[in-house]
Amino acid sequence: MLELEATALTSNYDVIGVTETWLSESDGDEYNISGYTLYRKDRQDRRGGGVALYIRNSLEAQVLNQDKENNAESIWVRIMDTNSKGIIIGACYRLPNSDAEQNNLLYNDIRNACRKGEAILMGDFNFPHIKWENPMGGTTDEIEMVEMTNDCFLTQFVKEPTRGEACLDLVFSNNEDRITKTEVREPLANSDHNMVTFEIIFKTPKVMTKAKVYNFRKANYEGMKQRLTEVDWSKIEKTSTEKGWLFFKNVVLEAQNNYIPKVGKSKSKTKWPKWFNRSKKKNSVKKGTLQSI
Q1: Residue 158 lies in a domain
Q2: Which of 34, 153, 158, 20 minimizes the C-alpha distance to 91?
Q3: Cβ neighbours of residue 188 under 8 Å, at least 6 residues apart?
Q4: What mean pLDDT is predicted for residues 179-186?
Q5: What percent of the chain has pLDDT over 70?
Q6: Which of 8, 26, 103, 107 minimizes the number of CB atoms within 10 Å of its CB?
Q7: Which of the 8 DSSP states describes residue 14?
Q8: 3-state secondary structure of 25
């Protein structure tokens, strides 16, 4: 996770797709990256799997509604551009031994995304024998995969192996003019898959934020204290724990809003974690350079 965060910050990516996250409902904020919003879909029925998208906060994004009963491992987010329809980006994972039902669930997700407009999808599809320069399938699973990409008018952009001699990690788009500079890079940490990077031809609108924060230096603490002493706190003793907590919280928030002024918050720079110092940044860049030679 630390190396993923370092890679995100040094390379300044706008969108990061991750497959086989191995996350579950018990995993929370420790997997966030400063400056990004995390969208994820965890595997429901057993350990492993899972997909995620990290989207830079400066982009206007919204997760697409998904059927909760659909166990396909895919997550889809619409990112808005100067065109009001925006573009749909997805991260997908297909098990190597995926059966026909699991394949169809994933393919239906892809078809639905492509019907909604321009779409880009990335992920590990585990089809080592399909030659994407001239896609043809031998097995039933391979044929169905190729037919699905043809039906959706998808172009595949990864031309080099991403694990050993196999090209497993793929990037598709139903607008071939959207993708450029696709590159297979070094693995992340101890992964046995290479990272894949690419650029999207995309013009985003400026997102104007009007966030305000409390200015505690100019707070009227005497007035706030006086207001809190006037409250009949005995009411808490006559109600349930939950209602008592809500009463206490509302009183404090009201006093905070009335006696602490707010000021506009300027757009902050990327917040670098304390552990990621200049030396680690230099070594991270050096690692990528050495493994790409």
Answers
A1: yes
A2: 20
A3: 3, 4, 7, 195
A4: 94
A5: 87
A6: 26
A7: S
A8: coil
Q: 162, 177, 200: which is the final residue of a domain?
A: 200
List, for residues 233-288, the tens digit of each pLDDT value.
888 888 888 888 888 888 888 888 899 998 876 554 555 666 666 776 677 767 76
Identify whether residues 100 and 230 lie together within a single domain: no
pLDDT at 76: 95
Report which of 59, 63, 80 is spatially closest to residue 15, judged by C-alpha positions.
59
For residue 235, report the phi and psi dihedrals to the nearest 5 degrees: -60, -30
> Would you say 75 and 91 are in contact if contact means Cβ atoms under 8 Å apart?
yes
Two structure tokens written together for 236: 């808490």
Instruction: Judge whether 248 lies within some domain.
Output: yes
The total domain count for the chain is: 2
Specify if 162 maps to a domain.
yes
Q: Are residues 50 and 195 located together in one domain of the fold?
A: yes
Task: Provide the 8-state DSSP code for 160.
Answer: S
The pLDDT assigned to 137 comes to 67
Asked if residue 181 and residue 217 are part of one domain, the reply reads no
Q: Residue by residue, what is the 3-state secondary structure of 62-124?
A: EECCCCCCCCCCEEEEEECCCCCCCEEEEEEECCCCCCHHHHHHHHHHHHHHHHCCCEEEEEE
pLDDT value of position 268: 47
Tokens of 103: 């394949």
16 and 139 in one domain? yes
Give the structural domain span for 245: 212-264
Residue type, 67: D
E runs forming strands in the chain? 15-19, 36-41, 51-56, 61-63, 74-79, 87-93, 119-124, 155-156, 169-173, 179-187, 194-200, 212-214, 262-264
Is residue 271 included in any domain, yes or no? no
pTM of structure:
0.71
pLDDT digits (tens, 9 = 90+) for 105-159: 999 999 999 999 999 999 999 999 999 988 876 899 999 999 999 999 999 999 9
